Amino acid sequence: MSGQVIFDPLLPWPALWALAAAAFLFAGLALWRGLSGWWLRALAAAALLAAIAQPSLQSEERRPLSDIVILVVDESASQKIGDRAEQTAAVAARIEAEVAALPNTELHKVTVGDGAKDAGTLAMTALAQALAEEPRARVAGAILVSDGQVHDLGLAPALPAPLNVILTGHAADWDRRLMVKTAPAFGIIGEPLTLTLRIEEQGRMPDAEAGRPVELAIAIDGGEPQRVTVPTGRDLDLPLTLSHGGQNVVQLTLETAEGELTDRNNVAVVQINGVRDRLRVLLVSGEPYAGERTWRNLLKSDSAVDLVHFTILRPPDKQDGVPVSELSLIAFPTRELFVEKIEEFDLIIFDRYRLRGILPAAYLDNIRDYVLGGGAVLVSAGPDYASAESLYHSGLGEILPARPTARVIEAPFLPRVSTLGERHPVTEGLETFAPEGGEPGKPGAPGWGRWTRYVELADADGQVVMEGPDKAPLLLLKHAGEGRVALLASDQAWLWARGFEGGGPQLELLRRLAHWMMKEPDLEEEALTATADGNVLTITRRTLGEGGREVTVTAPDGSSTQLALSEVAPGRYQATFAAPDLGLYRISDGDLERVTALGPASPREFEDAIASSAPLDPVVEPTNGGFVAVEDGLPDIRTVREGRPAAGRGWIGITPRGAYQTTDIRIAALLPAWAFLLIAAGLTTAAWVREGRR
């Protein structure tokens, strides 16, 4: 219960003050004239003014409200380092018990995890939201349990009470961090590029570790790592050379020293897209025919292709009586191309080439060795392949995927993608590129045109991805040593380019063949990939085999999860995985392994893993709060007056607010109006009587 005098004047306050001024002047005039009742006149005027002001006594019934303490608990990734999680749990339990023991005080607890999209610890955002949900007049203090690494200090709210921070971690902690300062988004295959790295030392480094050179492992696409020793504390330029097109995942791993705080920031993953500057193709043509010009035009139409065309314009057995001295021919540098510079070519195409003694057997043996060492050869076969002068009877026969039977079938047939081809990335979905208006010949067949010649093959030793008449092998792919070979058992693919019966996807087929031979990751028949969308990983296993598939996903903290893959398309198996943390994930199915990064491999939470009060100083100091380290003991909670320091050795303070809720209000006039009039009349009469006696 509390009371106070309030006024409800009959006239506006300015008018009331004007009347008061007039009464003061009249009282002063009476005093100046020497009237003995001047003071009685003044009291009478005051009584009249009081009657106009209508003073009343207001009494309130009040219910005290409890004080509120906001507790923000940091449960981000950096708070899981070492024993910080246990420290945090112990502090939270102690705060809850201390606040429960205080009279008329309640605790509101808020937890903070990792911010979305690697935003870090958003403790100030959480504090501002909690503060907005409570009456500011009741907030007696805020307590933050954290390692001090907060990343939204610009959003810190204006607090009506002290903010105290209880720091987890240990003063003796130390750590090393691997930073990638600059990395290109793409690089040209075979040409060096440079990554700029830096290894930082943080915290209280032991004498034996400070400044010591450390070992760095560099692995591309999960391959065997290369290890180098690098210095700390300065920028390092790391040269790299990409070996294939598409995405190259470069994993950098710093050795973990004994006693180091965490190894989560010892790993970095850089994804670089490999591109080819130029695709160098050697086209070796045999007997001229209608499709030769199509091959040449197809290759020359791509500005990214450097084409060298070796063609036989005048075979040695041609007898036309023209003296050699009168022929305008330039000697072709066969030795330079097929011996000295053969390794510079990305792809060699034999188009209806037959053995005529122009290329010595040693040159063809050299091409075979080029393939076994990692090169690529495509053979477009016509009647030449079925003859006694077939390439199969040279050194190349050792790596070609099928033997000719010497039979050539001259009859229209419709090329089809085989059952295996539906799973192989070279021919998967090729039917979708069929042109409109094709004449498939029968319902349900691909909508492209027919071919008219087929070279019969036997003893197929490769992947049959397209079939000819009676499901005979038409397009075969083969891995030979480190390289790859493709055999097309027809020289009629040019009919597609000429639009025969509507044409067909010759350009798409050749593009996929070339990229498969170049070992592009997107066209590998056995591949394991992972893509991230938010915190969800989509894992895809592409394979030519059949049957159930499982993968093991290893999280950044070392925990493993088994996932069963479901077939979503022929040869494609998928599963999704909700990743709990940002960082580096390793995916393996026993045969293949893939490394992928969800967000950065070293999240923002681990940029500076050492516990520190420095980031929060500008927020805590204006509130008279302070810092208490957990390793110095769990703090007590005391009440302090507003404006006094709210932290000390082993204790933190809150400021009681004394807030209340008014449940009832009563208003009663001090005197009725007639009483004021009676008093004023009595005083006026007394003044007249006093002055009349003189």
User: Strand-residue fraction?
Assistant: 25-35%
Bulk shape? elongated
Q: What's the oligomerization state?
A: single chain
- If you compute it from the alpha carbons, what radius of gyration comes out, rounded to the nearest whole angstrom? 45 Å
User: Strand arrangement, largest sheet?
Assistant: 16-15-17-18-24-23-22-20
- Alpha-beta content class: alpha/beta
Helix content: 10-25%
Task: Write down how many β-strands occur, each being a DSSP E stretch of 2 or more residues.
Answer: 36
Instruction: Show unreliable segments.
Output: 437-441
Q: Count of DSSP helices?
A: 12
The largest β sheet comes out as:
8 strands, mixed
N-to-C span: 52 Å
Mean pLDDT: 85
Please explain how this structure is put together.
By secondary structure, the protein is α/β, with parallel strands linked by helices. The chain has an 8-stranded mixed β-sheet with strand order 16-15-17-18-24-23-22-20. It has a 7-stranded antiparallel β-sheet with strand order 25-26-29-28-27-30-31, with no helix packed on it. A 5-stranded parallel β-sheet has the order 4-3-5-6-32, with helices on both faces. Helix 1 (13-32) packs antiparallel against helix 2 (38-53) and helix 2 packs antiparallel against helix 12. The longest helix is centred in the N-terminal third of the chain and has 20 residues, at 13-32. The chain is elongated. 37% of the residues are buried. The model is unreliable at 437-441 (pLDDT under 50).
